[in-house]
Structures are given as structure tokens and as C-alpha cells.
C2 domain-containing protein (Ceratopteris richardii), 745 residues
Amino acid sequence: MKYLFIKVEMARGLAIRDATGSSDPFVEVKVGNVKVETAVISQNLNPVWREVFAIAEDRFSAQFLEITVWDHDVIGKDFLGFVAFEIAEIPERRPPDSPLATQWYKLESRGSNKRAEGEIMLSVWIGTQADEAFPHARQSDSGWVPYTRSKIYLTPRLWYMRVIVHGAQGLVPTKENRFPECSARIELTGVSTQVHRTRWVTNRHLSPEWGEEMLFVVAEPFADEFLCVKVLDKMGPNKDEVLGSAKIPLLDVPRRLNYRPVDARWYDLEREKDLKEVIQDVADKMKGNSKFMSRIQLTICLEGGYHVLDESTHYSSDMRPTDKRLWKPPVAMLELGLIGASGLVPMKNRDGRSCTDAYCVAKYGPKWVRTRTVMDSMSPKWNEQYTWEVYDPCTVLTVGVFDNQHLISSTAEKVQSLKDDVVGKVRIRLSTLETDRTYSHRYPLIVLEKSGVKRKGEIELVVRLTCIRRFNIMQAYVTPLLPKLHYQRPFNVRHVEALREAAMRIVISRLARSEPPLRAEVVKYMLDVDAYKWSFRRSKANWNRISKVFSSCASLLTWFQDICGWKNPLTTVLVHFLYFILVWYPELILPTFFLYMFLIGSWQYRFRPRHPPHMDVNLSLANATNSEELDEEFDPLPTAKSPEIIRHRYDRLRALGGRIQTVIGDLATQLERFHALVNWRDPRATTIFILFCLLAAVVLYLTPFRVIAILVGVYTLRHPRFRDGMPPIPLNFFRRLPALSDVML
């Protein structure tokens, strides 16, 4: 993409136009129908601007570039001089050429305007978005706004912090002749507030013991992060008094890479004191008397051997442990080219017409990239390229497109309430990419809204996965997905979900504090914060996924029934022949199985996907859902719906739960019948079973296994004329076994 660059440095010796004996100069750059101005420098005849402008080639159609210096007045403006360039004569610069040197140009007069004086220093050239001046320039297709430029953001490094509350000593109750009921409250202050409490304990010696473990998520840097510990006394319902508190800076917390023991420490607990107690403490210190203090025993450490989950495990982009010393070298390089979008739908109205101000966000690992915002274009072109180091090929790259709603000059309150609209999202799993191959493809941008599924355009991406170490990238497939501590010392599932939510809140708040901010609604959409909320549509889609996986088993069962039914006699005879060979030579079973799988995989290679898959509307059942289900899916927590709607949804959920309950009950019944074979709940059934087992043992001892296997196979594959169509005897016997369902209330 070609751009016309204008770098305005400074001016000197400008003419005086104000009564104060000076001027308020600014520069106006005009080419065709494009016009932009620099900042106004008040009361200065030798102003310095140091501004760069980049005008896209498709935004102008003119023969000349005019650079005019004006004097800013309250009403109107006064001419100070101008310089003109012919577009055809402007030099073209191609990196890695050195930057074009700025030059002094004498300001010229024009027509009946006042006589020009002075000189202006500037440089003009034609380049591309690869020019090093482009990221810092005010760009025409971004509305000349500085905060619409491309930016790179980094997720803060997250740690798990483990806190073990052992006990406390020397607690002083607020009331005499009373044994306090104590609990320890641990609160993490800072970007994301996290609170945990121990159980309530009563101890006659005023030394309660808890022995409870708590987990927190913390983010670097730790300069403003503290762990606030309070020991509370339960005085009544919703009434607690503080027996002592301590404030522990996270900078003092030790770190560990493995599960080596960490020594417990005693921390002094301070009480809130009145003026009399403060005076007494000062007097004791002056006399050199040390006062006994309450204290609490804690084990605190930062876990560097775990990976902090801040996104869904199904499409995570990073699996490395927190501590850099445990990182392995990268196995590949990911290159992403964000070419542009096409066919975008209008997202808002400006000046009485529909428009879209689109920008793109890509996320992989801790690195987020944001393209510049292309204003007022339904087919924006970004042509930006980014790279990432890949440590695990079984990770996912996420690319989202958004409409910028913060380009309208308005009050601060209104700007804060505005949210960037979602245009669509694409996920690309790196393991589906062939190494060293360039994929160039257009992906549909599909969004599910309350009104239904909508297609809002297409995005064109170029993706390439370049292999660095081919052996290591293959080895990654046989290594654990997460660091080894997740398997040696796993967390409780309930803790994992709570920690994931805390990590997401920290990432959202940190990126929102950047400048320009990566807004909360953008980060939430990229991380799929609401993926764990209840959705009737998603539940049906997951059930269909399970059914589709087992459809191959159903097809195999249908094929076997056709074989048993002699639908194709030649095929059935061949199956008999193959079965006899495998029974007589059992050492051929496993080689034959693996050879068959190899042939299937080789045949399916012809039908491999040519491009990474995109969001599937049919798989998601986005077109097969109704407005009521979508309204429930987008209903926030807590709900704001009327009691009638909530009652209707509750009844529907109860009906669904009833069907699930029936399926679980049937499964439990079948499993209990296996236990009933030998537990003598039905004496006659158990007698029949154990006598059959005795007879089977005698027969199997006396008869070679190959003979038994051939007889069973021939009986199973017998001709339909030797079948009566009734259920087999073992199934009849199994269905008559008792279960515990008849003794349930």
C-alpha cells in the first residue's frame, strides 16, 4: 500500500501578523480533496511541530501537493506562505534505504495575499506502510487520530499463589470471660480483589488451628500488591470484630519451581487501638519494654511450575509454566498477515450516513496485536504482518474484527459508556497447518446475536507456520499438554474454574489500563469469558457432536448386521474366511488392525482440508435455534427477566433434567444387574449363573480355544434361515436380573 509522507519539522523567520508582534502559526497540508492541519504554536515566529502525515494513495487524486503556513486568529486565519510540490516529481523511498533528509524551503507568496517571509523545514516522499515513519504518522485512512495506530499489547505474567493458614497464637478477645469463635480472612488487594476465608473455630487456649489451603492469582509487577490477613471474631449474625491484622507485600513472598517444601512463618497481628492504648505503647517503647503481640502462622509461596489458565483449555494459545527458567526453546514461527476485510455491514450512522470504522485484534500466547483503525470503509485494507514464537503446535490463534465506537468527539461520560461492536472472529488451530506452507484464504465473519446469526463480512488472512526444529515439533505431540505439576499436584476442578475467572479479570483490567486501551468488551470476546454460561443451543450442539462421533460405530454395527444377515453372500463368505485365518493365526490380529488403519489414513489424505476451518454455523446450531433460546443465552447474571419468563425457563430446564435423570437411572440399573449376578439378591438367577460358569470352565479347560472361537463365530454369522428373530438367551437372562430401582423412594 503506497502512502504520501509529509514530515513537517519546523519553520523560522515567519512574518508578524498579530498586534502582539508575533504570530500563532500552523501548517495546512492539502492534496486533492484531502486536507489536514498541524497543531497551533502560540506566539512563536520559529515554531517546531515535528509531525508526520501519511496520505493513502487511493485517498487523493491531484497533480500538486500544497503546504501552507497560516496564522491562527479567533476569527479566520492569515496567510504566512506556502510551498507546492508536483506529485509526479516526489521521490519514492524503499526500505531499508535511510530516511530522507529534511530540507529548508523558502515560503512563497500567493495571489493577493500578504507577502510571505521565512522558511519551512520538511521532507516529502512516497513510501509504503513498511516505512519506519508509518507507525508514528497521522494516517489519512485512520482519520488523522493518533490513538487509532497499530499497537502491540502483552498480557502480564500471571502466578498462582498458594497460602496455607496453619493457626494463630495469643489472640486477645474483645470481651473478657468469652472464648472467641475465630476465622482467618485472606484478601488480595490490587488490580483484582480476591477473598478467601477459613472455617470458624473455637479454642479455649486462644490459639485456633485451621490447616486450610487457599489459591490466588497474582500478576507482575508486585509493587502495589499486598496480602491482607485478618483474624475475625464472630460476635453475632453478620457481625464480626477484628482481633488482629497483618499486611504482607508480595515482593517478600518466595518463589518455587517445583513442589519443594516452603518454611512456614509467623506474622505479627496488629489491633486497632484507641488513643489511650497508643499512648501506653509509646511509653512502653521509651522504657524499652517489649509488648507481647498476637501472631498467625502462614505458608506463602508463588508457584512458578504451573501454567495460569486465563482462557479455555480447548482453544488455549499458551501452555508454558509461569517461570521462564522452565521454558523450552520454540519449535516454530507463526507468521500472520492481516490483509483486509470485505463486504462489512454498516455498524453505525455518522453525519446521516451509514459507516464502519473497522480494526482487527489477533491474540496468540501473551502477545496481543491491534491493527490501525480504517475509518469509513466497508472494505478496509490493513496489510499488516506479525510474528509469534510457537512453543506448542497444538494451540490456537484467535483473530477478531471490531468496529471502533470511540472516534466521535463527545463528553467523557458518553465515551466511557460506548462499547466497540463485534464484527466477527476466526480461530485457527496451528496443528491443522502444514509446516512451511503459506495459507491465503477468506474467512466469513459470523456473529451470534439476540436476533439470530448474522454474517457481517469476510476477512482475508495469510498464515504460515515455519518449522524451526522438526524433531521437537513432532516430540511435542507425545509430551503432556500442561506442565508436570498440573499432574503431580493437581488442583481441584472447583478451584480451577474460580482461578480461571480471576485470571481473566486481571488480564481484562490490565489491558484496559494500556494507552490506547484494549477495551474490556474486546478482551472478553477474544477470551470467550461467557463460554461456561448455560446455553440450551450449545448443549444440543454438544449432544450432536457426540452423536456424530458415535455414528461411525453405528455404521460399523449396521455393516456387521448386514454380514450376519447375509445381505451380500460373497462378502459374508469372505468375512468367514478372514475370521478363520485370524482365529487360527492370532498373531496376525494386531498387524492386520494397524495395517488397516494405515490404509484408511492414507486413503483419507486425498480428502484432507485445504484451508483451516472457520466458524461452523450448522455445527453450532445457530440457524436451528429460536428467539426464546437466544434470549436466555444472552441473559446476564443475575437475570433481569420477569418472574413469568423465569418460571417458564425453570420448567423447561426441569423437563430436560427429568430426561437426563431417566437416562442416568437406566444406566445405573444396567450396572447394578452386573452386581446382581453374584450377590444372591435373586437366589435362582445367581445359582444359574454360577453353575453356568462352572460348566463353561470345564468346557474351556477341555476344548482348545481356537475351536471355541470358531464355533462362536459360525454361530454368530449363521444364515437367517437358522434364526428365529427373538432376543438371545443371555440378553433375556440379563434383563430379568434385579436392580435397586425397586427400593428407591
Remarks:
- The longest strand covers residues 452-467.
- The CA atoms of residues 449 and 630 lie 8 Å apart.
- The chain has a mean pLDDT of 87.
